[in-house]
Amino acid sequence: AKARGRNGYQFYAPSMSGEGVERLRLETMLRRAIEKNEIFLHYQPQVDIDSGRLVGVEALVRWQSPELGRVEPTRFIPVAEDTGFIGQLGQWVLAEACRQMVCWDTDGLRVPKMAVNLSVRQFDRGSIAPTVAAVLHGAGLAPARLQLEVTESVIMNTGDALEYINDLRAIGVGLAIDDFGTGYSSLAYLKQLPVQTLKIDRSFIKDISADAGADANAEAIAVAIIQLGKSLNLSVIAEGVESEEQAAFLLRHGCSHAQGYLYSRPVLPAEILARWGQGQDK
Ligand code: C2E
Ligand code: CA
Ligand code: CA
Ligand code: CA
Known about the structure:
This is EAL domain-containing protein. The chain has 282 residues and is of the alpha/beta class. The protein has helices at 2-12, 18-33, 73-83, 86-106, 129-139, 152-157, 161-170, 187-192, 202-205, 216-231, 244-252, 269-276; strands spanning 39-48, 54-65, 69-71, 114-117, 146-151, 174-180, 197-200, 235-238, 257-258.
């Protein structure tokens, strides 16, 4: 009762900014959202540009709140990170994504790989490899079919990150560096990491176009990342591909995998099955 009184006081304290109140409200609602079934996943296809084949999907968390409407992950993930709720949320996402893979298998759609985002804060309480292994085992999914996406900040910000990343690799899951090129990755460090995939950030893809005004810098960076990936023997995937010109550019420069609105927005599992399942050619 005491804690509650304090919260109430904080809530109405004049020193608390409107934004603070908003965050507190969001936090409270977010904590209940999982049990109220307001949280679910969308999946965005990752395709082989040349053949159009499905090479994987990325799980993207969604929150549909009766009170707030659709809340964007860019708004609630930071709140979950600040409050420590990201641990529970991240584990729910992982379990749900693994469960979905096995569901598709049963329905005759073998999605080669499931990509799941990890937040830097999920490494705060030590190695998460045992949890990930338990979730995979519980779902009955082979570790090699899971790819965890971490940003460069995960690697650079956490003291024992390299150890934790190695633990994850040791249980057999794949690792990708997300938003590659936007962080402060040291190339020497990159070589030591047990990652298999670089994901080129959308900011470098969006300015690739056939227009005369195309951003030569963005194009040069995209090409440099593709070449870097090749020389380190990593696979490279581009995110945020929206046009045929961008896809053609990537293919021409040796990047064969892409994800973006050109192929599909993030969608519900049934839509993935309808489009890529047995009897469909694309
Ligand atoms: P991200 O991991 O970089 O995910 C890609 C974001 O780009 C997604 O936004 C996706 O919907 C969007 N996107 C995909 N293709 C295109 C395109 O062609 N054009 C444009 N303009 N956008 C495209 P979304 O779903 O809003 O997610 C935003 C961010 O929230 C993600 O960025 C990721 O950092 C975070 N996030 C989402 N789900 C999770 C999760 O389960 N766990 C964690 N830790 N973070 C998540
Ligand atoms: Ca991602
Ligand atoms: Ca990304
Ligand atoms: Ca990005």
